[in-house]
Predict the structure.
Amino acid sequence: MAIKLHKGDLPQGIEFGTSVAIDTETLGLVPRRDKLCLVQLSAGDGNAHLVQLDRSSYDAPNLKALLTNPAITKIFHFARFDVAVIRYYLGVDVAPVYCTKIASKLTRTYTDRHGLKDLIRELLGIELNKQQQSSDWGAHMLSDAQKQYAAQDVIYLHELKARLDQMLIREGRDVVAESCFKFVPARAALDLAGWTEEDIFAH
């Protein structure tokens, strides 16, 4: 696995094909409070590109162009959070979206364990190391352990999507899954507007 760290923006000329796996690292789990520090990307080739953002400007035109490219599907795990934090700090709406956590909840109804580590262990037979999950992503210099952790969160998403797609089709839930994926940007907008916990569809 090759890990490339880019400062400020994604360089031009990197090809991701028709889909790119994406994750984010922030200073916490409250988008309006905890700044976006890092965006990780993978073309599904076993390599990862880490974009360490300039948190004073968030001026990353190449990254923003990729995130909004309608010809490229963006694969996330728990897209709801990542799409919200990208919208808040980078000012763009990510689309189209695929979320492995939504796909898991629609197919793996035999369990309530839908975390990325659980999914990758069961479906791919790989054990992830999550020791760096809670660390200072705002540090000027990221450690090798942080880079490794950030990369592993995206390099398996393409393979995971392929397995989950098979399960969605098998269970006849691929169409409803697509509808859920399309709703993610709206769900993220609701979170940012203050409707984080309230179910607007409830009676």
User: Anything to note?
Assistant: The CA atoms of residues 97 and 182 lie 7 Å apart. Residues 174-193 form the longest helix (20 residues). The chain has one domain: 3-193.
